């Protein structure tokens, strides 16, 4: 009887040992391999060594997964001349102060990829043209991270929305003392999620830090004024870089898919 009990105890210990081993292996796999879904390649030194663009200071560096967007972000302190007219290989922010803001809006030109059938890449794409690749579900599903280097640190953002936003809606969010209010951030997040082409499995609130990448488009025709916006929120302290779900079956995506197929006349 004692022998049987000892055997049972031994089996239980073996089972628990195997279970602990599996849990440890899963944890190590998560830490070691899932982080390579997007590899952080620091751009701190790039910011420090970037040459001055016209009269604009380099304030950061932008890198967007899956695209050739990997270049400086510049800014001007002159409100009368807030952005460069035609820089190749630069984005810009309208700088309000030297601090890292809760909401960072990075703009870039799109000169060669304005149609309702955007190309994913071309040799002449040296600005924000490749941002338009996010209209394609397969691309959005595979590329989900934005890296913005600022103030000597690489910040990683999970994309939570891809939108066509009427230009009139881009400047409605209240700013007080040079900052977005919490209510304004909440409204901006709500707008972007509501109009997103995809439903991202990403929680986001007004307490998160947000980055939005914006460029021009004529996707809906030359007379319809829209911006194309890809938005992300900063990785939280308890998160690692890993894959996450992107669902495309919403009305916003269905609408633009019809236009790209030619089933609907551009408005």
Verbal overview:
The protein has two domains: 2-32; 40-261, Sortase (Sortase, Chain: A). The termini are far apart. Helices cover 25% and strands 25% of the residues. It is built from five helices and twelve strands. A hairpin with an 8-residue loop joins strand 10 and strand 11 (226-234). The chain has helices spanning 2-32, 44-49, 137-142, 182-195, 251-261, and strands spanning 57-64, 70-75, 91-93, 103-107, 145-150, 153-166, 175-176, 179-180, 199-200, 210-217, 226-234, 246-247. With 267 residues, it is α+β, with helices and mostly antiparallel strands. The strands form three sheets. Strands 3-2-1-5-6-11-10-4 form an eight-stranded mixed beta sheet. Strands 7-8 form a two-stranded antiparallel ribbon. It has a two-stranded antiparallel ribbon with strand order 9-12.
Features:
267 residues, Sortase, Chain: A, 2 domains, 8-stranded mixed β-sheet, two-stranded antiparallel sheet
Question: What's the short story on this structure?
Answer:
This protein has 267 residues and is an alpha+beta fold. The protein has five helices and twelve strands. The protein has two domains: 31 residues; 222 residues, Sortase, Chain: A (Beta Barrel).
Strand-helix topology:
Blueprint: H1 2-32, H2 44-49, E1 57-64, E2 70-75, E3 91-93, E4 103-107, H3 137-142, E5 145-150, E6 153-166, E7 175-176, E8 179-180, H4 182-195, E9 199-200, E10 210-217, E11 226-234, E12 246-247, H5 251-261
Parallel strand pairs: 2-3, 4-10
Antiparallel strand pairs: 1-2, 1-5, 5-6, 6-11, 7-8, 9-12, 10-11
